[in-house]
Amino acid sequence: MSAIQEPAVKSYFFGKGYRDLQATIAESWSRNLVSARKELEAARRLWSGTYLAKGGAILRATASLSVILFGTAFFLAFSILHIAVLLAFFLLIYLGFTIVYLVERGYLAWRKLSTVCPECHEKIALPEYFCPGCGEIHRRLIPSQYGILHHVCVKCGTRLPATFFLRHGELQARCPNPACGYLLKAGHVESRKVFIPIFGGPSVGKSAYLFAAVQGLAAEAPRLGFSPFFVDTHSEGEFARARQELGRGRPPAKTLASLPRAFSLELRRNGQGSRVLYLYDPAGEAFGETEGLVLHKYQEYLSGLIFLIDPFTIPAVQLEYQDRLSGARDALKPSALPAEDALGRIFINLEEHFGQSRTARLKLPVALVINKVDAFNLEDRIGERAVRARAAANPTTDPDTLRNELIRGQLVRWDQGSLVQQLETRCVRVRYYTCSSLGRMPDSTARPFEGRGMLAPLMWILGTADAGFFQSIHPT
Amino acid sequence: MGQLIIGCLGLLLIFGVIYMIGWLLYHAAPYLLSAAALYGAAIALRNYGLAFANNVKPGRRAP
User: Fold this and answer.
1) Alpha carbons A32 and B45: distance in angstroms, whole number
2) Which residues of B touch A52 (CB under 8 A)?
3) DSSP A397
């Protein structure tokens, strides 16, 4: 393994101190030889003179010998002292950076702070940081032989914070994956995160769901006690474009990337830190075959899962609404992939590539969300209107339970019992929801789309995945 | 007779002087040699000090 050359000034006691010692010994030796030779020359000159001069010659020769003898003794004694001092500082610094490093790693693990690349989805142990002075890349900006708390850039002399405690995460960083190199923002680095993908076949409305949910989250944030912030300009730009499209009555453009870039949003609470929400919106085509999901590495560290289904993929629903469906097919764009197939592929992929056992049950919260309930009379049958009607008739029963019973029962009646069974057999925590990510059927008008019902599943997952932070949230 | 006495005294004086020089040399030589050795040691110490001052520059400075 070749050592990575860090572009930082190494601690004196880890390199230069020993080179200095070597140079000192070499120079003192050469000086001693010069001095001894000088004394010997003087002795030789005196030897040819009087007896007194001969006596002087003996003394100079003695001095010459003494320079060699004491020179050796001194360099031995001082070198031992020098090495002892170097080693003492070496050990002190080694101990210092080891303690700071271990405390830092322990703190990050305890607070569940991690770095995840939103582009290639790798969990990153250590991002690569750019020197703010000259742009040089520092690959190991951690407490080390290059400095316990700071590293000094070898190119420009800038002091870079070397530990989380000095907020090195605020420096511009990039993903260390050579095939990626994505520029990471502060929110991506060493922050507490929640990872939620929105899964479902093509045309079930995942993108519209994502943007409508974020829009809902932004609108509800003050009431929920949050301040939302975009982590990167990419997410902000994407959201602004989608909001503009939705505002003009146009659905968001279809997602083309099978492997999506995470949409990241930071939610801050006063005095309680923050959470960075990573939402994934893969193209529905990824669910067409099992291999389509192999590269979706975020499945290793999911916090929850939103499984979106289009009711118009269900044959029983198509049959029920066949008289009206033919006229609305262009507006509804029913998904071609049965929900059961998409769900099955998610489980197969989790088993084959992400270590999920065939018999084990997923412990993370899974929300099954039936989209497009604005169509026809679905809202009255399984939507929130129907839930409210049931709640009025059963005031003692929890509305969440009523919603679950209502939607689950309807799915079973629509011959989707195997989908429900598959979901409930494989997952410990399942809830059923409905939503309309556009709020109405698309038409030729420019009336803005106003989605409804996206926030409830998202907030349930957030509250279940991170109860401490999201416990007081009760979306309407 | 007087000359003999003077001769003997002269010899005695010469012997005394030689003895004195010999005695002085015998007793002073170790000190002289020690002084020479100390001088040599001082040179060696100075040499190490100069070499140390020239080469040992601790501190973390950017080049």
Assistant:
1) 9
2) none
3) S
Question: Which of A25, A62, A70 minimises the CB distance to B44?
Answer: A70
Residues on chain B touching A23 (C-beta within 8 angstroms) = 51, 54-55
Instruction: Identify all chain A residues contacting B55, using CB atoms and an 8 Å cutoff.
Output: 20, 23-24, 27
| Alpha-carbon distance values, A78 to A81, A193, B20, B44 (Å) | 5, 55, 44, 12
Torsion, Cα of A146, A151, A153, A156 (10° steps):
-130
Q: How far is A82 from chain B (nearest CA, A)?
A: 10
From B44, B58, B62, residue closest to A71, measured CB to CB:
B44
d(CA A370, CA A310): 6
Put simply, the answer to whether B40 touches A157 (Cβ < 8 Å) is no
Separation between Cα atoms, residue B51 and residue A129, nearest integer Å: 40
Most B CBs within 10 Å: which of A32, A34, A148, as the mutation test of the B interface? A32
Residues in chain A within 8 Å Cβ distance of B53: none
Rounded distance between C-alpha atoms, residue A106 and residue A98, angstroms = 12
Which candidate from A17, A58, A59 shows the least CB-CB separation from B58? A17
Q: Report residue A238 as tokens.
A: 């994407």
| Residue A457 Cα distances to A194, A209, A475, angstroms | 14, 11, 9
DSSP designation for A4:
P
* B44 to A32: CB separation less than 8 angstroms, yes or no: yes
CB count in 10 Å sphere of residue A290: 17
* Ordered per-residue pLDDT tens for chain A, 476 residues: 445 678 998 888 888 888 888 898 889 889 988 988 998 999 999 999 888 898 889 888 888 888 888 878 877 888 888 889 889 999 999 999 999 999 999 999 998 888 999 888 888 989 999 999 999 999 999 999 899 999 999 999 899 999 999 988 889 999 999 999 999 988 888 888 999 999 888 888 888 899 999 988 888 888 888 888 999 888 899 899 988 888 888 888 777 666 778 899 998 887 778 899 999 888 877 776 666 666 677 778 889 999 999 999 999 998 988 888 877 777 777 777 888 888 888 888 888 777 778 888 888 999 999 999 998 889 999 999 999 999 999 888 888 999 999 999 999 999 999 999 999 999 999 999 999 988 888 877 888 888 889 999 999 999 888 887 876 555 44
Interchain proximity B40–A62, CB inside 8 Å: yes
For residue A106, give every residue at least 6 positions away whose Cβ sits within 8 Å of its Cβ, in sequence order, or none: none
Angle formed by the axes of helices A417-426 and A399-413, nearest 10°: 130
ipTM: 0.73
Do the Cβ atoms of A63 and B44 come within 8 Å? no
Check CB contact under 8 Å for A20 and B45. no
Distance CA A454, CA A216 (A): 8
Flag if B37 and A62 touch (Cβ within 8 Å): yes
Q: Which residue from A minimizes the CA distance to B21?
A: A52
